[in-house]
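Forum: Protein Structure Q&A
Topic: Joint prediction for protein chains with partners

I've read a bunch of threads here and the consensus seems to be that you should model interacting components together rather than docking separate models afterwards. I'd like to see that in practice. Below is the full input, 521 residues plus whatever partners are listed. Could one of the regulars post the assembled result?
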Amino acid sequence: MSELWQALAQGVLIGSTYGLLALGMGLVYGVSGIVNFAHGDFISLAMFMCLALFSAFSLDPYVSALITIPVMMAIGALVYRLLLRPMIGYKFLMVVQLTLGLSLVLQNGILMIFGGQPARTPSVVESKLIILGEVVLRLPHLIACVVAFVMAIGLYIMLRSTDFGRSIRAVHQNAHAAALMGVDVGRVQVMTFAMGLGILAVAAALLLPGTPIQPSQGLQYTVITLLVVVLGGMTNFVGIMLGGLVIGISEALGTVYVSDTLGRLVPYAIFVLIMLFRPQGLSWRAS
Amino acid sequence: MLEVQGLVAGYGGVPVLHDLSLTLAAGEFVGLLGANNAGKTTLINSLSGLVAPMAGRILFDGQDVSRATARERVELGIIQVPEGRLVFPEMSVRENLLLGGFCDRARPHRPQQLEKVLALFPRLKERLPQPAGTLSGGEQQMLAIGRGLMAEARVLMLDEPSLGLSPLFVQYIFGIIDQLHKDGLTMLLVEQNLNLTLRYAERCYVLERGHVAVEGAAEVVKSDPRTRQAYLGL
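Posted by a regular:
Agreed with the consensus. Here's the joint model:
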């Protein structure tokens, strides 16, 4: 029984960060129709930036985030303006090709600079444990969960009740009508993409303490994020956070109850099962 | 107030409007008539800055705005109420109205403007928290017009406001449009409904295949045989 509680707790903690990762992708998809297959490699990029900042200045990942967030946002704005915007209006697959290409460039760029050895970025909280009865939680996971939920709620409030948030939703629901309201659609798309990478930078710092990183990990994060976004129904905010928890928990259960290699398949198996019975995703509204 | 001179515009390099000229004086209510594909929607989308002109000029208050972006035109007060309403379906009526007053010029006066719009459309007041997608067609048209008014339009361009509405709602909407005109709003009304437009508008243009076929006071346009010709595409 204690194993189950342990797996559930760990799943929720990690899953909330997956949810946060996926919110970034869902937002971008919602306003630009772009599915970014380099998503995971941008996480890698942010993680390796934290590693570099640690090597150079001994900065803790949580402190580095203050630097990586604006840098990633700037990179996002540039990538969108220079690479993605010119592709809008072309076929969906062209954009997929472009982001896949970007993924290879990022992955190999990181490989060139940092080499292929797995690397760790230490943090002061890395080895701290919190013991609740039979459940042992690692402090970085707890921090990740709290920050992820705070950010998700903050984003939700921003989208609901600020003019900028409403303009994002307007572009998502009808870009043509949004333009007629005086919303600068192009600007909203750039800012949303930048925001998506900013969120990634936060998630990268949250996932980093205690996790070994290597340049080839990007695809794995992309796939997990895609699973979560699809589970959540692409643009449904609550659905995506819920999808993150489902994937996080199934990953943890797989690790605990199923032997190693097979255990890693559990999230995918659960994903396929859910999609068979609820192709519209976890959201209750079929929109 | 608004002047279009020799406008050529279209999509993908193919012109839909050929050398089209039109004027709209302050406080005037002008109707824009024509069959399907005559170029009515292309014209008001050019005025909104959504279709780039290939030639010609658009002057607003004597200032050339041909190259201004859609956002800049909204800031100037050139507001379009689009065909098919295009309300934001998953947002509440209230949020739709707030977005109507999104531009910098209108944003500071949103609370007062909201009061005015709700006084004009009491029906919307009852529906404020409801998602716009759940409104009836007529209510959505009220919302679309209300949204346009939230932007404190200086020129309000209505694209087919009667489309798909019951006769009763059409009467109601035209009553509102007439009232707005009497309150001094400058309006350009795009319509297929010939008789209603000729009854309310002061002046009309009849478009045919991207150019002006007939223009003049409503009575003149009404009695001109070319009007019906243009309409039937003969």
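Chain B has a mean pLDDT of 93.
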